[in-house]
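name: query_chain
kind: protein
chains: 1
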Amino acid sequence: MSDSAITRPDPSAVLELFKPVTWFPPVWAFLCGVVASGAPMQGKWGFAALGLLLAGPMVCATSQAVNDWFDRHVDAINEPHRPIPSGRIPGRLGLYIAIFWSFASLLVGATLGAWGFAATVVALALAWAYSAPPLRLKLNGWWGNLACGLSYESLPWITAAAVISGGAPALPVIVMALLYGLGAHGIMTLNDFKSIEGDTRTGVRSLPVQLGAERAALVACWMMAIPQVVVIGLLFAWDAPIHALVVVLLLAGQVAAMVKMLRDPKKLAPWYNATGIGMYVLGMLATAFALRGMA
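structure:
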């Protein structure tokens, strides 16, 4: 292979490495944090735009590049068409891209003040700890999925509220962000269903590998539902009954979808991701508006 091919990879391969479809959860969580802050946006739209850039195309993209590099042997089994195992990003270039984008993310994070920079450091640390030795948290689905849920949902939400409000977020914002991050543990479990074969052969102990498809799907459903039940209870307690009822209806829709998905988790997990998860994130936004009313 020529040097030019190594130093100038196909831009479409790099974009595929960054998996833009995965940027939605942290970007949405950041938007929820902006809403939940309750702070006026005058003069802060630039910070919000930089935060969205950081949450999705920077930090989340970095996490995907790191994961693809350290998962290249697993992907050769599960997804051989991915940029690294297919050779479209050759040699160690995938690792170099992950390192470069990490430093670029830190530079962007520094423009968002102390909270933004600290959050970027934590998010990148989790991204590398999730995929890279010696921690490689993803080797155990309990810990790996927790790291993903907190970094994809809780951290962007809390960071946005801090950046927009100019200080530490209110306790209700932190509590709700943590609850939705915990619930995302179940979402991460459902994402692991597509990789059962490769995970089994390479020693990645995802929950579907540890528990079997049926039990893992049931655990995922409980992990998604219980935090939302707590959210509903807190919203009622905090005198936000309309928002609580919205989350109740959205959770009811999720439960109906869960019942169908549990009939054949291996086949229907992708279907649930395309239906039930939409209701989950709408509940996040409803909760954010409730918090805005408390600010």
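note: The first helix runs from residue 3 to 7.
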